[in-house]
Amino acid sequence: MDQQQISNLSYEQALEKLENIVTEIEQGNISIDQLASKIAEAKALFEYCMAKLTTIEKDVSNILKKIPDNLNDTPQNQ
Predict the structure, then answer these.
(1) N or C: which terminal CB in the chain sees fewer CB atoms within 10 Å?
(2) Any idea where the domains of the chain sit in the sequence?
(3) For residues 28 and 49, what is the distance between their CA atoms, to the nearest angstrom?
(4) What's the mean per-residue pLDDT of the chain?
(5) What is the mean pLDDT of residues 59-75?
């Protein structure tokens, strides 16, 4: 899977593919000939997921900064 294909995945899809590769490696279901390419793919998927999480974290932080401080002072049950 190349970088272009990875960038077309949702976070959930990339994470699932990463988890599948890790499971295959842990269970010994990958031949020695495939191991290097699978590890490279896992690395690319991991980096993609981390970049997505970092972007979302920044976006959420920016949104939360825009919420007025007095919002917590409003009555919950009106």
Answers:
(1) C
(2) 3-67
(3) 24
(4) 89
(5) 78
Distance CA 54, CA 10 (A): 15
In the numeric block, the tokens 């690319």 are attached to 44
Residue 31 CB partners (closer than 8 Å, separation 6+) = none
For residue 37, which amino acid is it? S
Work out the average pLDDT over 12-38: 94
DSSP class per residue in the chain: --HHHHHTS-HHHHHHHHHHHHHHHHHT-S-HHHHHHHHHHHHHHHHHHHHHHHHHHHHHHHHHHTS-GGGGGS-S--
- Of the candidates 42, 35, 34, which has an alpha carbon nearest to the alpha carbon of residue 6? 42
Residue 9, C-beta contacts closer than 8 angstroms, at least 6 positions apart: 17, 48
**Listed residue (52, 53, 54, 48) closest to 17, CA to CA:** 48
